[in-house]
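pipeline/complex-builder :: batch 7 item 3
reading input block
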Amino acid sequence: MASLVDALPRLRRRGARRKGRGADIIQTIALVCAVLLAGGALLAPWLTPFDPLDQSLLARLRPPIGFDRYSAGHLAGTDELGRDVLSRSLHGLRLTLALAFAGAVIGLLLGGLLGLIAGQRRGWVEDGIMSLVDMQIAIPFTLVALLVLALMGSSLTVLVLVLGIAGWEQYARIVRGEVRRIAAQPYLEAAHTAGAGPFYIAWRHVLPNLVSPLVVQFTLSLSNIVILESTLSFLGLGVQPPQPSLGSMVGLGRDYMPTAPWIVLTPAALIVVLTFTVQILGDWLRDRADVRLRER
Amino acid sequence: MFRLLLTTALVTLPLVAAAQEITVGAANVAPYIDPGRDHSNVGSQFYYNTFDTLIDRDHGKLELEWVPALATSWKLVEPKVMEFKLREGVKFHNGADMTADDVVFSLNRMMQATFPPYVVRAKDRLGNFLRAEKVDDLTIRVVAEREEPLWETLMSLQQVMIVPEAYIKGLTGKADVAEDSDYEAFALAPVGTGPYKVAAFQPGEKLVWERFDDFWGETAPLERATVVQIAETASRVTALKTGEADIITNVAPDQLSLIDSDPNLKTEGSATALFHVMIMNQNHPKLRDPRIRQALSLAIDRDALNEALWLGKAIVPSTHTMAEMGALHQPDLVTFEYDPERARKLLEEAGYDGFEITFDTAATYYTNGLLAAQAIMEMWGAVGINGRVNVQDQWSGNDPEMMVRNWSNPMYFADPFGSFGVMWAPGGPSESEGRFNTDADYAKKWDRFRFSTDVADRNAAYVELMEEIKQDPPMLPLYRPFESWGMKQSVNWAPMPGHIPYVLDFRAGSISFAGN
Amino acid sequence: MTPYLLRHVLKAVVTLWAIVTVTFVATRLSGNPIDTFLGEGLTAEGRQALIDYFQLDRSLWHQYLAYLRGVLSGEFGLSFVDRRPVTTVVAERLWPSGQLLLTSVALTVAVSLPLGVLAAVYRRSWIGSAVMVVAFTGYAVPSFVLAIVMVLTFSYWLNWLPVVGNGTWLHFIMPTIAMSGGLIAALTRFTRNAMLDVLGQDFIRTARAKGLRETQVVLKHGLGNASITVISVIGLQIAGLAAAGSVVVESIFSWPGVGQMLVNAAILRDYPVLQFGVIAVAVAVVSINILTDIAYALADPRIRLARA
């Protein structure tokens, strides 16, 4: 994660030169949202007035503040077991984000490593890795994820692994491309003759060049993973009850849409805002970093 | 404009009043239609319209009242042999006449089952019957191994509905032999003698009944009935609103107000003859001490579950008994209670150290199943039990690792043998799966309860069995769920008290339309 | 072209074999159909009888070889659940899935190409920003949220649109939109970027210098060239994203498609259906990819020549 933090000031500086006016407002909104969402997720245990699992069978399906039958303290209403929707949403957000980060990091490590190997070793190793990449691009991964979870049974471990495998191929492509580009540079030749080993070269010369494209890709993939996780949980194959995730709250609450829409609307709105924010930020980072990534 | 478009598009769908056609939106459509191999809650919806038994009952009444169906009369000719006179002029949906051979074939396919899915279903309830024999063209006999106190009851089971011999044998392979593949093919193209024939069947998706004009009894009120699977609760309710369905099944209590508040719609429901139960593995190393299982049971406030999740409409039993069982209904017996104090004490005595106890449940199969499981965890927590819900669709009742899970114990027929008796028999399903133990003493009591011809003796034996269950509990009946159907105001239909759970009965007298 | 095609087909066959094998192993190791859908309350003999009946006691190798032999001779077996040939079960569901895919692709292309071009041409004005905000929003709203909100509004409250099955064209409206939301967002952004790339190139400047009208420059030269890259993304993205949306859409709209069938087969361990379903989907995806490649090659003279 250190690389991410290091990269940011540099991106900002580079971006400052080519700043456009038009989209400023949106980006500002996105930044504010990002801070709020991250704050809400990180501080969920301290912010929320209720334990997300605490039930109150006598106060089920109570509406949010300002409506009839409002149950004191439950600002966003209660769900089908009388649990606090706001507390569950924030904890759900926390879990969704944690899963997304974990998945993205696994994808980054896995893809990065394979990309590095593919870039340095030519021949059948590279061919093999690249056909894996091709396969990964070609298969409908959500479907594969659903089948894997249906077969293996859903646990957080399996879920995180599935989310990690979801986006590795993009990192592999970026890293391999960069490694090959740099390998052709004369200074690498020099480093090589000077006796530098492949790992030293990777660390010293390849990595710094990779930081900004990887940060951008990381951000972009984050929103994909959030959507994947929500979809899986919505279908009941992701995060399992009573643990809340944004997707599973929508999934389990959808039967109550006409009578108690607040159960679904709060987590659904959070998913949309979260994905939107991450997308805008990713796009913004990409423009600033001036890296050209292939669209997913 | 859109409303108009929709109406135009739906012309192909039934218009209730005019053509007497209806569409049912069902949570599940069975994967096959064969009354013999099926005893599921999904399947039981479909058999009564399509098939007949030898003996039927008046389903409008809770009390047992037998009525002639494909048999016009029956009597014991020897202590263990019953003779049935068959109805004349009965036709199968394929046009063939029903003969004594068909009846003997139908009964023996279960009583002397060779097709594995039949073997499975036949043993636990038809085990006392040796064979059926033809006497003449309109007379058959059924021979039992021991004196049978429940002749009529067992001869009216879904599993012994009458099917056509020649048709089945001719489906695949040799035309005069009943191969396994014949039964497989039959389950996809079922033919019976009932008031509706199956005109189209897409497993798990759709079933279309059409009126069978040559039905031996009163003509069916509907021209055509289509059952489509709409798995999602929200979609089912919406389909009722848009008019895509005239009746929908499995409406959860939380959805009732939604339908009832619409002036064009209504709901009908009843506390189904079935218990949602919590089963506990007697042989799990950590649950061997009965006191732990007693505590798991005593900690659950079933009345609170009923009030909160079922609007108080479910029935919480004090023992494993139902009003349907007539003389064998024992409502005064108290086997299961809520007593958190005792639960705490028992846990302490048993030296419970806070280990995790998992509660398996499928996500959606039982109405309110997942909600109840989560609420039970809360109740367990209140007495210090560390419980965790484990959502999985696989059946885990035969897994030695299974600790606790939910299940349903339907009333397969109106007798304690048909609900408790089948599932908790010595060597029966629960014991075979390794989560329930019986000894010679239990077996003796069970045998008296099953075979005694004296009702008082059967009741006394049942009390003794319940005491065993109480002392070393393998299960807790939670409640009889209140199951509801939503429908248009114009449809007059309701579940009838004399049926086993979930039967969609569209026979004459069971369904009609306002204004017709 | 021919060796190029041949290599593709060979690769596809190897891929399919790998997929069949992985699916086979994964399903067999993960559980037993007897325990998942026939299992409730079976007596011990009953269970054994069923295991024998379904021949589940054979060794894995035996079952695997038997399955491969079956595949080669076109025999894919019977569903464990309803005992119909799996080819029938799957075929019945492929067409509804295909229909929905086609309407979704059509809607996606019809909406996102113009939007993408607009966003590229007016990238410095509010129009471009507005289009992009719409695109981002489209991507940020998951198909399940879009679907349940539409059902609530258009069916439950307004009573305008049906929610069950695929009977009439009205049934297609909501599922198509739910499937396309994310696709439209992705393809709009992609078209925009492809257009920006093309519009910045020398031959566009030449075209403008020749005095062609701007619309002609944009549509003929710009979109014409950008479409080469757009085609490639349609093939790759759409198969994947559509499959993602399909399970959700199928379950909410009771759409008799392949996605829902596969997930159910996986839950029930209906091996034959799952295996053949996966093969069918894989064949479909691989064919779409090959067709995309060919279309791409045909559209781009550089590739056509280089690979010939």
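note: Chain C has a mean pLDDT of 83.
queue -> next item
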